[in-house]
Amino acid sequence: MSDDAIPELAVIIPVYNEAAIVDTVLEDWIQVLDQLGCDYRIHVYDDGSTDDSAAVLAAAAKRHEQLEIHSRPNGGHGPTVLQGYKENNDPEWVFQVDADNEVPSASFPEFWECRDQYDFIIGRRLGETRPLIRRIMSVGARTIVRLVFGAGVHDANCPFRLMRSGRFRDMFGRIPDDTFSPNLLISGYAMSTDTRCREIEIPYCKRKTGAVSIRKLKLVRASISSVIQTIRIRRHL
Predict the structure, then answer these.
(1) Over the Cα atoms of the chain, what is R_g?
(2) How far apart are CA 37 and CA 31, in angstroms?
(3) How far apart are CA 217 and CA 194, in angstroms?
(4) Span between the terminal Cα atoms of the chain, in Å
(5) Structural domain boundaries of the chain?
(6) Alpha carbon 212 to chain centroid distance?
(7) Global pTM?
(8) What's the CATH superfamily of 9-236?
(9) What pLDDT does residue 156 have?
(10) pLDDT tens column, 80-121
């Protein structure tokens, strides 16, 4: 694929202080995507990492022409993911996954192989061992999406989702850049319209490296702000 050609799939991976694992994650994804014969490009967004992530990513990009590294000032997971959606929705498909290796790349083939029948395929994480506060936030996210949109999905904020770009391109552009949880809005939109949706169970394992960027009280405050923001943006949309 030439630099100017549009691939079939854009993979969006936000990174924040994942120097210890991100190289392994990228190698795993490249192997899986190559085995599937995908025409793809991986867009890694470094959200102002303060560790050696930038150096690790630069080295990986030299080894793999399928990688494109984007650097931005730290703004949080949601705005980083949203930037990736807005800048890379020319391919027919957009897929988002995190760089923490909590969901293995081996789960992706099932998503890819059934894509022709759906517009939105989202994971449902199983075997979760996340801290209690984060499990509570997941339940809250599911509840809010159902209340705000009138329809929901079990794991509304799951960072393992395959989307048909043409179905979501306009919505990507209408979501404010500073949105804390754009994936909640996207999930709600998908489930409350005639979008063809599927939920697939995927294994989840607790991260072994790095650290979550938002913790405890700050997470609670951010979640409350996210609820208010989600309701406000839903009314605008």
Answers:
(1) 17
(2) 10
(3) 38
(4) 36
(5) 9-236
(6) 15
(7) 0.87
(8) Spore Coat Polysaccharide Biosynthesis Protein SpsA; Chain A (3.90.550.10)
(9) 87
(10) 999 999 999 999 999 999 999 999 999 999 999 999 999 999
The residue ranking higher by pLDDT, 150 or 180, is 180
Q: Which residue has the higher pLDDT, 136 or 43?
A: 43
- Joined tokens for residue 105: 């790349």
In tens, the pLDDT along 21-64 reads: 999 999 999 999 999 999 999 999 999 999 999 999 999 999 99
Task: State the residue for tokens 């936000």.
Answer: 14
Tokens in use for 158? 């799951």
Residue 228 burial (C-beta neighbours within 10 Å; 0-12, 13-18, 19+): exposed
For 93, the token pair is: 């498909």
130: left (phi over 0), alpha (psi -120 to 50) or beta: beta
Backbone phi, psi, residue 126, to 5°: -115, 155
Token pair of 1 as six digits? 């694929």
